Automatic annotation (TrEMBL):
Highest taxon in the source lineage: Eukaryota
Keyword Signal listed: yes
Protein name per the record: KIB1-4 beta-propeller domain-containing protein
Residues annotated as transmembrane: none
Amino acid sequence: MTKRDWTSLLIDLVVRIRWILLADDVTEFVRFRAVCCSWRSCTPNPKDLDGRFHPRKWIMYSSLDSPPTTAFNFVNLSTGKKLMLDLTELRRGYSLIYVVDGLCLLENNRTHTLALLNPFTRFLTHLPNQVRHNSRSRQFPFVLEHAPGSTLSGVYITSSSMVVLRFDPDNEEDRTHLVYAKPTNCMWMTIDINIFPSDSFMYRDQFYIIDPNEGLVQINLHHETNSQTHVTTVVVPCDRFLMDLEDCYLVECDGKFIMVAET
């Protein structure tokens, strides 16, 4: 049997295959690069912040409340493929805080700073360690400790690797607020939202939240050090029907997002 010379594959064909694989599943792209040095040399290294390498079709289905472990199960929602990945960072002083779109939000147990891990490419990027609160112009040292009386209720990640953390108040007198930053920023920005805690959703890098008084609201996040304001746009105005609903949820369906209501 003749041994196949994979390095002889035309470069244009290698490039074509890599984009097809990357558009489908980043794990297949990683396997493709592992075949030979020639293929690796003409394909981009997935160990960077490019949103194309985000494992968006993958979710973790291991419980964070299970006995301490560093091995977790992931499943591809499109293909049903399952992988068990060892998060070695959990043996090196990190704790797993949240998993979203296949990416893991980690907290350093000593410094309490945050980092974003792609468990499929093994790329770990550190996030800013300071928080600026727009309304008070103060800097706080730790992201998860800057807002006593609030609970981290959601994590969202854009294709540009901006991380958005949502904190909901423990009592109805306080406000929901967002903390957001890119790994390349030196500081997290914070904005208050005058909305009673309700469902929110990140769609095509835009943040949406349901306001019972306004309707479906889009919040534009701009990371500008001198900016003290944010822009909100009412996408779908509120009506009496929305105000009477007990619960509303935003979900993605076939590339679009829809509002699901419980009546």
